[in-house]
Amino acid sequence: MASKNYDERTLLAVIGDEDTVTGMLLAGIGNVSEEDGSRNFVVVDSKMTDEQLADHFQTYTTRKDIAILLINQHIAERIRFQVDAYTQAFPALLEIPSKDHPYDPEKDSVLRRVHKLFGE
């Protein structure tokens, strides 16, 4: 039986560009908390500073109701130091491509750790 901590992790969160977040919301992942109005998604545009982006990343990686955090890889590049330093199992962090920016496995922090473990 799973511990109570894992039972509470029921949400996906997404930090992405407008097209990615819109697609995820259309797929049904959107959630707005009734208690405080917090959302499990954020649209990153050119007006958002790296500090604001880092704050959103920190918020989502410390929330106890999020199981998986999806982030566009080109956005993760803006806070690569923080993404690379993240080592927790939950929420799981997955870098995903966007419509305009293809996925580059050489930049993916999780994939780099896997390669390091296997000595590649």
TrEMBL record:
Instruction: Return the GO cellular component terms, semicolon-separated.
Output: fungal-type vacuole membrane; proton-transporting V-type ATPase, V1 domain
Cellular localisation: Vacuole membrane
Any one Gene Ontology MF annotation carried by this entry is:
proton-transporting ATPase activity, rotational mechanism
Role:
Subunit of the V1 complex of vacuolar(H+)-ATPase (V-ATPase), a multisubunit enzyme composed of a peripheral complex (V1) that hydrolyzes ATP and a membrane integral complex (V0) that translocates protons. V-ATPase is responsible for acidifying and maintaining the pH of intracellular compartments.
NCBIfam families per the UniProt record, alphabetical:
V_ATP_synt_F
Keyword tags? Hydrogen ion transport, Ion transport, Membrane, Transport, Vacuole
Identify the species of origin.
Wickerhamiella sorbophila
- Where it mainly occurs, coarsely classed, is membrane
Subunit details: V-ATPase is a heteromultimeric enzyme composed of a peripheral catalytic V1 complex (components A to H) attached to an integral membrane V0 proton pore complex (components: a, c, c', c'', d, e, f and VOA1).
The name under which this protein is listed is V-type proton ATPase subunit F
Entry-linked InterPro entries: ATPase_V1-cplx_f_g_su, ATPase_V1-cplx_fsu_euk, ATPase_V1_fsu_sf
Q: Does the keyword Ion transport apply?
A: yes
This protein's membrane topology, according to the annotation, is: Peripheral membrane protein
User: Can you tell me which family this protein belongs to?
Assistant: Belongs to the V-ATPase F subunit family.
Q: Which Gene3D superfamilies does the record cross-reference, listed alphabetically? A: ATPase, V1 complex, subunit F
